[in-house]
Amino acid sequence: MLSKKVEKALNDQVKMEGNSSNYYLALACWADSNGFSGVADFMYQQSDEERFHMLKLMKYVIERDGEAVVPAYDKPSISVKNATEIFQDLYKHEVSVTQSINKLVGICLAENDFTTHNFLQWYVSEQLEEEATAKTILDKIKLMGNDKSAWYHFDRDIAGLSVTSVADSGAQV
């Protein structure tokens, strides 16, 4: 069984993952509306991945006899002006998710909930990969600068890749 403190922290993370899904959905809509169909596909997949993370947490809470709460989600606030800013925001957002996961792991350790701590190691690894890949994408964008041909190829190549699959495959974008 989960302690009430761990259950609440897990449900808070559920909300963060759901908000992340909606945030990436908003970025995908911006990209789709501005001619970056590959970036949009990437962000739609990111949105789906965050929803998967949310569902995985909810199922875990239920398996541990806790109450999984379906929260109200915040309306995503984006103010990007170009595709570069999308990936800068992606990186900053992933850093904040990592901080949230780390806080959750700390709560589990303080509560001596080693089962949940073990479960969360998947999220710790996932965040390491997502941050590294977002940073790699930003490095590629820096190299491309304002070269429209490079952006065309970047947009085409990033379609179909998720943040995790880029890191796992070693694919270059």
Structure notes:
- With 173 residues, this protein is mainly alpha-helical.
- Helix content is 77%, strand content 0%.
- The protein is built from 6 helices and no strands.
- It is elongated.
- Residues 163-173 have low confidence and may be disordered.
Helix run count: 6
DSSP strand (E) fraction? Answer: under 5%
Number of domains: 1
CATH architecture: Up-down Bundle
**CATH-wise, what's the superfamily?**
Ferritin, core subunit, four-helix bundle
Assembly annotation: single chain
List keywords for this structure.
173 residues; mainly alpha; Ferritin; elongated; disordered C terminus
Secondary structure layout plus pairing:
Layout: H1 4-33, H2 37-63, H3 83-110, H4 114-144, H5 148-158, H6 163-169
Helix pairs in contact: 1-2, 1-3, 2-5, 3-4, 4-6
A few lines on this structure:
The chain is mainly α. It is 77% helix and 0% strand. Helix 1 packs antiparallel against helix 2, helix 1 packs antiparallel against helix 3 and helix 4 crosses helix 6.
